[in-house]
Design a protein that fits this description.
With about 400 residues, the chain is of the alpha/beta class. The protein is built from 15 helices and twelve strands. The termini are far apart.
């Protein structure tokens, strides 16, 4: 109840400020609402390369995005921290939203339920994942626990997704169910962040930089563990893998790279396993790590959709599958969704790797299905559409 009251007050204030700034003339500028770096970074970079004169404003919802775009902004563009605690930056953010010609978003943003954009404004949802294993939106299992007012707010937000980028027919169908979107709202450009996997120059640069910064990765078979973030883990996270058992079975040939959600604040003492594990949870771009990864271990994350570009082995370790299905839900039975062996213990992980128990044909089928439209020029195709909107009267 208290949370809903706080949200209502916040949205009422936001709505009032937006209406005030909406009086000002619309400007031919692109405003990015960024909770994640990758898709925004690729779109922004391509926009400035093809149309350097285009005005862009980057509104950042977290420190990692703000830090990144503060270091990569082009001349005359604006980077702001979109947070009520930063009052002047927050007010400026609302002003830019209210006066933009194109608004790009990559997530669910509650403020969208409280504003009405000018008729000419184009709203583009680019989302932050290539595919989906866990349900979300209207299919999220937690919807039954929300208040009527909260569900109405969610629908208002989804109704603001005028256009949505997709990378496959499979993801388009999921968005239709998750957000209640019609077929006409989808733009089948592919997903901007996947362009990285077609850029050999950038790829070699990333690999060189990673080896220079983390020389312990050289001449090792890299196991990347990138689990899904779970509620309640921020201050109390326990690694569900026995590193000692893994190290003992696999030996010195391997190194275990940990990539947890950056919000997790738990610190670890790895003791005797210190040389076996490299914690890169603070590394900003998880896709960069895929270039030096030999084996991926995950659970319900969207990272397999991108790792499938490499046609390398994946293991799936859903140690809390029944609980997760009950609280979050999955789009299909787990064994049908994932393109690799499902393991249930640290010993399973080690033996699956040593025995090379992987079906790469299944990974190839998975890749073709989920990356149907993402063929290396997704950012360009999206930017051409954005520029077309900017030219419209």
């Amino acid at each position: 109840m208290a949370r809903e009251l706080f949200i209502s007050i916040y949205l009422s204030i936001f709505s009032f400020l937006f209406k005030f700034f909406n009086i000002f003339p619309m400007q031919k500028k692109v405003v990015f609402c960024a909770s994640f770096i990758e898709n925004n970074a690729f779109l922004y970079s391509k926009l400035k390369k093809l149309y350097p004169e285009t005005a862009a404003v980057l509104l950042n919802y977290n420190k990692s995005c703000f830090h990144y775009f503060s270091h990569h902004q082009k001349k005359d563009d604006i980077v702001l921290f979109f947070n009520p605690k930063k009052i002047f930056s927050f007010l400026a953010s609302i002003y830019h939203l209210a006066t933009a010609k194109v608004v790009i978003m990559d997530n669910y943003y509650a403020f969208l339920s409280s504003v009405q954009f000018k008729r000419e404004v184009k709203r583009l949802q680019i989302w932050h994942a290539v595919g989906a294993i866990k349900t979300f939106g209207l299919k999220d299992s937690s919807i039954k626990d929300r208040s009527k007012k909260a569900n109405e707010r969610f629908l208002k937000v989804y109704n603001q997704f005028e256009h949505t980028l997709v990378g496959s027919n499979k993801m388009e169908n999921i968005f239709k169910e998750a957000f209640g979107l019609p077929s006409s709202s989808f733009i089948r450009t592919g997903i901007p962040r996947t362009d990285l996997f077609f850029d050999d120059l950038h790829k070699n640069k990333i690999i060189t930089e990673l080896y220079d910064h983390y020389p312990e990765l050289r001449n090792k078979k890299v196991i990347l563990y990138a689990p899904t973030f779970r509620d309640g883990q921020i201050d109390h996270y326990t690694l569900p893998i026995n590193l000692a058992a893994l190290k003992k079975t696999l030996g010195k040939e391997y190194i275990f790279v940990l990539k947890l959600h950056p919000a997790i604040k738990t610190t670890f003492d790895y003791g005797k396993q210190d040389s076996f594990i490299l914690d890169l949870s603070d590394y900003p771009k998880v896709n960069d790590l895929l270039f030096i990864t030999d084996y991926l271990i995950t659970d319900y994350s969207s990272i397999p959709f991108e790792f499938s570009y490499f046609q390398k082995p994946m293991l799936f370790y859903p140690y809390d599958l029944e609980e997760y299905m009950a609280t979050r839900g999955l789009w299909e039975p787990y064994s049908d969704l994932v393109p690799g062996p499902i393991v249930h213990s640290s010993e399973d992980i080690a033996h699956t790797i040593l025995n090379n128990s992987f079906d790469l044909n299944r990974i190839e089928e998975f890749h073709k299905a989920w990356n149907e439209y993402s063929n290396g020029d997704s950012s360009k195709k999206a930017v051409l559409q954005i520029h077309k909107w900017l030219k419209e009267d």
